[in-house]
Amino acid sequence: MVTQQVLHEVRVDFSTTINEQNWKTWLAKLFVNFSQSRCNVIAIAFWALWFNRSSIYHEGAGKNAHGVISFIKAYITEIDRLENATSTMHFSVDKKWEPPVGDVLKLNFDASFQQDTNRSVSGVIVRNAEGLITAACTHLNEYIMDSTMAVARAYLQSITFAEDLGFRKIIVESDSLIVIKKMRTPVDDKSCISAPVKEVKARIRSFESINFSFVPRCANNAAHVLAEERQSHASSMYWVEAAPTSVERAAERDRWWLNSND
Prior knowledge:
This protein is α/β, with parallel strands linked by helices. 50% of the residues lie in helices and 17% in strands. The chain has helices at 2-9, 20-33, 36-59, 65-87, 147-164, 177-184, 194-203, 221-229, 245-260, and strands at 105-114, 119-127, 133-141, 169-174, 209-214, 237-240. Strands 5-4-1-2-3-6 form a six-stranded mixed sheet, with helices on both faces. Helix 5 (147-164) packs parallel to helix 7.
């Protein structure tokens, strides 16, 4: 059984006699008695098992025990590497959105995720060198397993949006360090977001120039507002030289900050 093999690999003593009534108690004791690092491994293992079962249910295909174990180890390694990278990065809490230069357009994107429905909304806003909104869009996504997948899907949809509108020179910004780093690395991605990562990389050749940048949340606020504001809507939306009122206000605050520093 895949579950038993995986839990054995991460050194979790799991008995098939545990019933639904005391399962939560058993799990709570695990997290009380183990160290933080061990709890992290266990949490990732359960998440990987759940994701694998969901893939089998929705797509009819999943990994065997060896594949799930390899995925867990790779994910842990990736998190450790990102934590080390983040510890060396310092951003001012006052950092604001900055406009692109010349005829380059800047795309900011974000995603809101609803765990209870496995839905996400991608928000993409495009602005020019004057900080004016060129275009914006939202996409409703179904069967999203976690927030990382939600952001990765938003990344792909932002690139597709720019491609469909014929933009040639773009900068793409997000406050998701994990996704940005995966887009920058030349190594084949083998994580749960490998599919959107590969598709984004395949579309890069459509642009004359494209750069990926990580920014703190305060510099990505307009996209965040767009994704959150459209969470209650049941369809994808598009705007040209406009956006919902709350997003236009957020973009205007970014422009006000730029003008105040001229």
